[in-house]
Amino acid sequence: MVEKVPHKALVVVTDGVGARFFRNTGNALHIALSAEGELKPSNLLDDGPSGGRPVEQSQQATDEATFAKQLAKELYRRAHSGDFAAFVLIADPQTLGQIRPLLHKEVQERMTAEIGKTLTNSAIADIQKALQTLSL
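The chain above was modelled as a monomer; its predicted structure follows.
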């Protein structure tokens, strides 16, 4: 059985406007997260989302899609440099749908679980509790 949140797994908690990174310093049964930084959108107008922008799409939706692309690039950079062997993605359902097709195969292969919830502004204890349900 594959551990959903193994020791040293990277845990990414994100929504359309930011991402927080954590590391599991515990193990799969006793998850203990330590904060490891965050990623904020940058150069949204210069970078742009993947693909074309529908005319009816709001600027906020475009910015969120652009950030999903930036996060996917950051995860690939980290995976390629050997930063993590396993990771869990926690995102609101819309962001999850935006980022999934953008994840490089190297990143996808390391994803052990995903949770479709908005927990970006939640306390670490609440994020740990959500992760703990994966191990039950």
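The radius of gyration is 15 Å.
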